[in-house]
Write a structure and sequence with these properties.
Layout (H helix, E strand, L loop, with lengths): L1 E9 L3 H8 L2 H7 L6 E5 L10 E8 L2 E13 L3 E8 L4 E11 L2 E11 L3 H33 L2
Antiparallel strand pairs: 1-7, 2-3, 3-4, 4-5, 5-6, 6-7
Length: 151
């Protein structure tokens, strides 16, 4: 199983960062290069505990669909989404928000495992982990820019 841990310092309140992280429209904006869009479940606005969203996107020249559900949510401290249907054997993304001297330290704990046993682990280690890290950084940069632009 692969684990990506990412920390992003944001000059804004944890509540604002938390709310922006749950915003489906902002997520879609951050994933323009993959043409990611919400096609089922909650398709816009802020997703809530127990709700799911079905995503459709193009990665590596292939169309993928994946359904994720919010399985844990304690505002404004943390929430967790998990894949319930899609291309991974396992995917769990924990989002943590801590007050810091500069505003908020946003931490992503992104765990995933590809199917196909040893071949899947090789794919994860060789390129999928760095690809997923880049997508998360792009998303976090948009959350940061959005939060810091609000007076």
């Amino acid at each position: 199983m692969s684990l990506i841990e990412l920390k992003t310092s944001i000059n804004a309140t944890p509540k604002l960062c938390f709310d922006l992280s749950l915003d489906i429209d902002l997520h879609i904006q951050s994933m323009k290069e993959t043409n990611e869009r919400a096609v089922g479940g909650r398709i816009s606005g802020q997703i809530k505990l127990g709700e799911s969203v079905k995503w459709k996107a193009k990665h590596f020249g292939f169309n993928f669909t994946m359904t994720n559900r919010i399985v844990d949510l304690v505002s404004p401290l943390h929430f967790t989404d998990e894949m319930v249907r899609g291309p991974f054997k396992y995917l769990r993304h924990r989002h943590l928000f801590e007050e810091s001297p500069n505003g908020t330290m946003m931490t992503d704990l992104f765990e995933f495992q590809s199917p196909f046993g040893l071949l899947g682990r090789l794919i994860d280690n060789i390129f999928l982990e760095s690809y997923m890290r880049r997508l998360l950084i792009k998303r976090n940069n948009l959350i940061k820019a959005s939060a810091e632009s609000i007076p």
